[in-house]
Amino acid sequence: MITYILATCIPGNEKEVIQKIKELPNIVEVNGIMGKYDIFVKIQADEVMKVDFTIGKLRGVPHITSTVSIPVLYGQGGTIDDEK
């Protein structure tokens, strides 16, 4: 299962937040971005509960003010179809 997270954080803390996120389990990718959100995160795990656990840990990272979770739907097209 793959889930993308868009996170916002307190300005000036992006580098610290990104470093903390990199330490969490099931994190595949973390990038600082510009716009409404500050950080893009890709989570991948073989069980929904593992993704849920990682999201919970991510939301507890200091200086994160909000998150949006975007779970991938298999069978809807795109390159992810090749995995299932």
Automatic annotation (TrEMBL):
Transcription regulator AsnC/Lrp ligand binding domain residues: 11-73
Domain of life per record: Archaea
A Pfam short name: AsnC_trans_reg
Protein's name according to its UniProt entry: Transcriptional regulator, AsnC family
Native source organism of the sequence: Nitrosotalea devaniterrae
